[in-house]
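Practice set, problem 2.
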Amino acid sequence: MGHKAAVSMLVLLASCALASVQGPARKPQENLPSDRTRRQVETIGSASQAYVVRFAGAVDGAMTRMPISYAAYKQGWQPNLYCRIENVGDTDVINPWLTVNGLGDWRTLEKIAAEATRGCTTDAEKARAVWEWERKHRFHACTWDRECDDAVKVHNVYGYTLCGDDAIIIDDLFRAAGLKTRPGRPVGHCVTEAFYDNEWHLLDGDEHVICLRRDNTTIAGEAEVVRDHDLMKRTHTYSIGSGDSPLTDQFSASLYGYEGDRTGERRRSTTHTMNLTLRPGESLEWRWDHVGKEYSYAQERKPGEAWHDGLGTLNEWGGTAYDNLRNGKWIYRVPLDRAVWTRGVVSAENTASGVPPPALQPADAAKPAVVVWKLASPWVFVGAQVRAHYTLAGDGPAIRLTFSPDGKSWQTILEDSKPGAGYATPSFDTLISPRGKPTYGFFVKLELQGAGSRVSDLLFDNDVQMSLLGMPELTVGDNQLRYTDETPGQRQVKVTHAWLERTEWVPPTAPPSPLFPADGATVEGTQFTFRWEPAVGRGLVPRQTEGGVQGTDVPSVAPAPQVADYHIEVCDRADMRWVISPNFEKLISRTPSKGKAEWQVPLVGLLNPGTTYYWRVRAMDSHGVWGPWSRRWSFRCEGPGAPLNLQAAPKADGTVGITWQANPQGRRPVAYKVYGSDEQGFTASDTEYIVRTGRGFCDTMEEYNARDKKGEDPFWGDVKTPANLITKTDQTSLFVVGPDFVARPNKAFYRVVAIDAQGNESGPSDYAAVPRPFVYTAAPPTARTAEAYRYEPRSIVSIGHFTCNGSYNGAFWHREKITWTLEKAPEWLKLENGVLSGTPTAAGRFGVSLKVTNNKQQEARQTFSVDVR
């Protein structure tokens, strides 16, 4: 602020609890002395105009960005500085926009869905494409309100969602792509299902999860995951940014336990569009830095107060999340030198143009000139400032600027009455987007009074919040830009791109060749280790000298970078559009192969025999620069397919047998392994493994809360569990339940694995469940008078599976409990504590009937006779 005389300025501040959020500006990135600033200006005169921006540097922002994952992604060195669209003509410009290389038209929900599903021909492809697009254009964070329920706002303005927001957004995108949807029912989490191919399918954009059926192709529905948690346990959860963690995958599975009806649909939440109008003198500027201004619904966290939901700002999600915030500019320099300035106002009273230089002044000096402007943007405003040059004459309040969020109530932001020339720059950031009230439009009123009072220059300088991934980013090479607008008639627009070019950094090479599998090779089995020829960090680069560019044998100024990480993708599509499943996109640094040019498939059976697969790898160097992808390589697996149609059938003799069929896909099996467990959705294992049990067996929340410490309970926490391999057979059937305790496992659930002649194993089959309750013991058929008779009947019982109840209260909540009832028996035979006993007093044949009932309202009976001699 400056003035030849004193200026009296009133900036009315909102209370801290309602003030707009201002934090530290993003730390300036470290540029190199050799980086060169480039700038390209395009003059636009048509409604659709294409042009090319040549980015001649060696490194761009996309190359330094870590893969988008569940948590906030890390953005490295970013050469883009700003991109400005400016109306330099005399007519309003309606809905101007830029796309880069055919991408980025996210002005409406329908346009986002169209970009996401481009090239898709089936509903299955559309659903997968929407899920892929959504999960790779946001990260997990929020500021605790419903702003992020709108897909257009998220992808242009904010860039982040929680699961509750994301389930709503992906629902809107599915429907915009022509798919039917319904909400999922997990505990403590939100998801959406899409309907195609006459079935429901679960696609979780927040946690980056799809669960494939045993065919390794079809995406399972939520009800299938509820039934068989192993579908989730064999899936990598929480995205490429997380390491493999079977216990985490078990916890993710525990959220799925709802067995009721799945009906209803959400209402559409996306109503926002990126429609905008630029008046003459107005400009929109995407910027790749930020000054620390953001919108938040959350309440301010007090010093020393522990963080919890509903407090703080984006910074609460960590420095990386905050670093991904961007502040753009929305600037309006009122063209007082042209008559068109009056077309940009809401209202104007008693105004007149002054003599050169052009200025605004009262037409009648006895009355004030009053002008109202509206500033409106599809990006949320997070800061505002007025810059005004003026000259005042006379006494009294000669100039006053006031702010209104609605055009009704007004607050003073500048007031001055001192005669003479003045220049004021009042900021009213604290009135813009106060917590809980995002500002997308506001009003500013100018009141000017006195003969000779005039305003010669007036500019509104506003900060807006922008999503980093929703900006027109230039990358290395020829960028194909297209400008469009919907302006009728003539327009005159100037578009300016500014960026840095860096030549001292050079991306690492692509891995040159595969070591295993060789390109086009056939592999024995479905679990093996991918290996490739290492990439090379390129530290020898051309260097600018007075005589020109020296050769590549001249060392770079910077140390030679080393390869720091690899990124592998394995696909079942030749176009590499998406990976098979979340198991097959990996940062090697998040795996046991860290530091090596290799990666092992985590489980047997995630690949299908006889199927052509494709893979590729790229490298990242120690500067954080990703190199190009390798060539696409292919391979096939040989081995048996997972057994099909596994069923359990009770027999009249009190036994249960299981039967299955060999899978026609893959080699003919020569043997099978059979696994059994009382845990629903168990994981087949030949060795000891760990089961997450939470607080063990619980029936009520009171019991759960009382079990807050392990104590002597062996079934509490993360429990080492014995192998559940039962036997090996060359048949396609096996008796598994019966009174012979040695030969029969007598378990509630079974899976089968196939083995071929080369010893390759398939993945586990779906499970078969034994009918429950089912009495598998046989009573002693004879007794002697005056001698004690005893029979302890036993029934098949499921211990259920690890689930969460109401919130993240993980335990085995669904253990089956049984009750025995003696329906028919001689007087000497009694049932106490589940044991049938007594002493017969006379010989004869006596009929007995036992009923067993479980807590699922299911029952079974055992009838038999006892011959007393």
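Problem 2, part (b): a different protein.
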Amino acid sequence: DPNQMYLVAYEYVFPHYGWAVAATALFVVISQLKINVTNAYAGSLAWSNFFARLTHSHPGRVVWVVFNTLIALMLMEMNLFQALGRVLGLYSNIAVAWMMAVVADLVINKPLGLSPPGIEFRRAYLYDINPVGVGAMGIASVLSVAAYLGLFGTSVQPWATFIALGAALVASPLIAWATGGRYYLAREDSGADDQGAAAPGGTPPFAKGGWGGFLHGWRNFHGRQIPNGGEVPTSITHTCCICGKDYEGEDLAHCPAYQDHICSLCCSLDARCDDLCKPQARLGAQWGNLLQRLLPNAAQPYLDAGLGHYLLLMAGILPVMGLLIGLLYYQEVLALQASDSARLAAVNATFIKLSAALLLIAGVVAWWLVLTHKSRQVAQEESNRQTELLMREIESHRHTDELLQKAKETADQANQAKSRYISAISHELRTPLNSILGYAQILDADAGIPDNRRQAVSVIRRSGDHLLSLIEGTLDIARIEGGKLTLDKRPLDFPSFVQEIVAMFEPQARGKGISFDYQQQGELPVNVRTDPRRLRQILINLLGNAVKFTASGGVVLRLKYQREMAHFEIEDSGPGIPPDELERIFEPFSRGSAAHVGATGGTGLGLTIAKMLTDLMGGEMKVESRPGQGSLFQVRLYLPQMHNLQAASPRIRRVGYVGVRQRILIVDNEATDREFLVNLLEPLGFQLAQAASGQECLDLIPRFKPHLICMDLAMPGMDGWETIRRLREGGLSDAQIVIISANAFDQGNDNEVGMRAEDFITKPVRIDDLLTWIGQRLKLEWVSADVAPEPASAPPPTEWHAPPPDALRALQAQIELGYPRGISGKLDDIAADPVHLEFVEVMRRLAKQFQFDSMQEIIRKALAEHPHARPDVD
């Protein structure tokens, strides 16, 4: 009794006996708590390893410490310590058998080459059951326990422990020799840690029989051979792909499921791979192979259906349950007197019933575990399948993303090439167009031009403006797509602006024989803030299409201004837009099936630019259309009202200016463009000088001392930007600089010389814009000649007296032939009656413009409405 020992010791320490007893009690309680908790922790290691292998879960060793403590408490409360001596004596035989099986493997098997030279602890390389160790331990345990219980007689009973020792030492090498040592390692090491690992199902290199095998095993056991006679390599550290911790190579295994290194604990807890690295080494596979050898082939389908798993569970549960019931029974029998036979019979009957009940419960629970395992296995297989599909999809998406990135790069390169091409071709087109439109504007303002020549000049201006609109449209799309288009917001005389738009399209509509109706709802503000050029571009594109594609009926422009929001509606009675074309009506170069109605073709950019500009200005554009009934475009824009501003001055014709003569230097490598500016500015009284290059400009400035410099950008040698930079940095001149260039893409871009967007005028030059800029920068007082007011446009004809049906059909026949002289002759015949002069005037105007489709539409409408018309008879 340790209490007495402690008490005797403490009597020498404390003067009073009571203190010694108290110290002894305290010491015993503390030491017993420490010992039992330590034992519980040691036992938790076994519980943790066992359940980690069995359930693939690791709740932590603290859980198993508490679990072990509860088991100890239960055994104590059940008074099982009375049989502790018997239990320990029984367990000692099993423990000796276990230890001697290990000793036999180390002392006998390894030197003989029957087992690997090293000791492998990684689960990924081990069989769940090695028959060498388990078999030797089982054989030795059964023989020693049988001798311990007296089954071999009382004379053999004292030798039970030695039987366990000898049986394990003999059985271990025999089983290793019989199995060829193939159950030690389940697979070869993926690294260089175990060169002696065997491939699954193969013969390991250490399993060599005879004297050679003995020598091979002895050398490997006493010192592993070092390749090439070098030193043992230092272990390389790797990171576990699951827990993320670093381990040496000897502590990691390569997992085929994760395609990376994995530590032993994570390998034990993983329930997804189902031992993909060693499927033949699982306990279930080993048990199934054993049953296949022992049972007939007819039982194979039942084994695959779960019978093998069920038998394996029962083989594990029944011995444990039998041992537990046997211990309880043994304790109860010891408590009974030998003469109490009746009570002994009752105890026997009770334990038989209890065993039968527990056997039934164990069978049901085991089958439930089998079904649960099957369900989990099916679910895991489905999860693995879905995971594989998901990984394929992820890989497919990754491949698609790579292709998209390549396509995006290709598209960006193509877009940049397109922008460069558009910029280059725009420059090449604007340069000659600058001279054409410039001189056309000068000639148009010359009062001495005869009327018959003025019409030719007007045709030149209209054609040039049309070509310029195509160039501007293409550039606008490129600017908007590249994010380089900026808005030039400034005050706008809104009523005058709207009247200008109306006056622009009323004659066009009247010339086609259709009506143009402007409807204003409420008052308009005098001034609003917006980009006049872009607003004009939106309305011109929409109204131009409406007038172009409407052959009969009319066009209505409605405008309502409310709460600083302008609502525009453009409605026409044209052919309409089919639903399938309505979806792509705002796509570039989309002209639609109604394009044949128009008098002239187009690029299909008008609506695209209008929609882009509306979005850029923060507005909204909608379209409604029905085939055969016309279309309705709705535009809503935010046009804030500006107060305390005077109305814009009326358009004037400048003939000179007041004050000191101003000197202007024109820098351009194109002689035609320089001559155009000279012809424009010299009559106004400016002193002019010309330079064909940037260097010539720098050389001329000290002598000429200009007040204003008109600078081109694209010049050979020193370009315009470099010339401006040298002017500013060198202090050669403080003159105002205006850029006149065909490089429209450079307008609004950041530049190092500080040129603003308003100082940039693109070719072809609009004379009014250039002169307005010059007047503002040089602070000129212009001398102007009043511009005669434009004659009020006559209201469009709402109706006319149509000719008789026969005359209309005769005219229609000439139009279908496309014979201008025949058309003119038929119109002369119809004009003999003064009542039809209005009709003849409209048709002649359309015939001069070759708008035969519109003429046919007017004739069809007139025939349909004529009171005496009759259907045509072939």
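Answer key, part (b): The two ends are 137 Å apart (CA to CA). The longest helix spans residues 341-444.
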